[in-house]
Amino acid sequence: MLSTIPAQVGIDSFVCYNGQIVVHKGEVVYRNALPTSALDRLTGHAGNNDHTLVYLGQHRGVATKANDHVVEQSLGELDMPIPTYEPNFHVEQDVYQTLLYCTPEDEHHYVDTYDEFDFIRWHPHAMDVINRGASKADGVRHFIEANGYRLENTYAFGDALNDLAMLQYVGTGIAMGNGRAETKAVADYVTKSILEDGIEYGLKKMNLI
């Protein structure tokens, strides 16, 4: 997954997987993998409920079920590659984020069971699974430290629930016009929607470009 990013967009420093991996000038400077034992329990639990998991490792994502059309549709909307079927990937490789595919009606099976994880819904049929208490703000903090930036000079754009901590942490948090009400409530500024080039508009409003 990560190995394709620099070649595609021409960058060598970034925060990804909800802040669980930070890359600075091509080198990983922070990583926060999910605990294998808890992930193994979640894998069995999801399998018993016929719910698909997508494991996100450093270089690729894999799924616990093949040809899941909901997985393919949701990731296709994000221009992410369709994961291959590798149900034991989490035993052999570090996993930094997991996508759990279930409806809101079924999420209580997991949210109330695992003290190790936070479950954050980003799609009608899917939730992010990350380490309890972790967030994009963690990754941004490590990125700032690696670059020697001043916090008050940092900016972030967000539109979803997994952006809340980050928008509150950085010097200036900017919510997308198409974002959730919760993100707009904590942001310092609300820009236009993504379909209206809201990031470019926000950068201009902040005099960054």
How would you concisely characterize the structure shown here?
By secondary structure, the protein is of the alpha/beta class. 32% of the residues lie in helices and 23% in strands.
Q: Which key terms come to mind for this protein?
A:
209 residues, single chain, alpha/beta, six-stranded mixed β-sheet, 12 strands, 9 helices, three-stranded antiparallel β-sheet
Q: Please mark out the parts with pLDDT under 50 across 5 or more consecutive residues, or reply none.
A: none
CATH architecture of the largest domain: 2-Layer Sandwich
CATH class term of the largest domain: Alpha Beta
Tell me the Rg in angstroms: 17 Å
What does this structure look like?
- This protein is α/β, with parallel strands linked by helices.
- The chain folds into 3 domains: 1-31 and 135-149, no CATH class; 36-131, Hypothetical Protein, Haloacid Dehalogenase-like Hydrolase, Chain: A, domain 2; 151-209, Rossmann fold.
- It contains 9 helices and 12 strands.
- The protein has helices at 5-9, 36-48, 69-77, 89-92, 108-111, 136-147, 164-169, 181-186, 198-205, and strands at 14-16, 21-24, 27-31, 53-56, 61-63, 84-85, 97-101, 117-123, 126-131, 155-158, 172-175, 189-190.
- The strands form 3 sheets. A 6-stranded mixed β-sheet has the order 6-5-4-7-9-8, with helices on one face.
- A hairpin with a 2-residue loop joins strand 8 (117-123) and strand 9.
- The longest helix is centred in the N-terminal third of the chain and has 13 residues, at 36-48.
- It is globular, with a radius of gyration of 17 Å.
- The two termini are 29 Å apart.
- Keywords: Isomerase.
- This is Bifunctional phosphatase/peptidyl-prolyl cis-trans isomerase.
